[in-house]
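ok so for the tutorial part 2 we go from a plain amino acid sequence to predicted structure tokens. step 1 is just haveing the sequence, like this:
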Amino acid sequence: VKFWDASAIVPLLIAEAATQRVLALAGRDPDMLVWWGSAVECVSALARLERVDALDAKGAARATDRLKQLADAWHEIEPGEVVREHAIRFLRVHPLRTADSLQLAAAFTASEYRPASLEFVTLDERLADAARREGFAMVDIAAAI
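step 2 — the prediction. this is what the tokens look like for a chain of 145 residues:
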């Protein structure tokens, strides 16, 4: 089981530079652990691409269907007071956006506060840096093929 950030899920939905690498990683370990809001973040990314004409309506529909398939199988870390408290702390000590602090807090909670026990998958460098500093075992996407 690995914790997947939304930035690493999107290439599973549409063709991007990292798609082959994340597909290989997911193929070897399809048991995904995600934050409760990851589906929303993924839809946001798809909608943004559609608005700037980088993704057509059919491609967006296929990606949304694929997201539903993934979401039906993944395990979500639900929102709660503990996740919120850790997200607030992470915002104070790392240069993160709100959603990224919630991602990191969900992973921290999922690791039962032992971040070295859980591999973290992200393509976001700022989030990767914060996760690394918190002690998570980072998955090297470049080496995933």
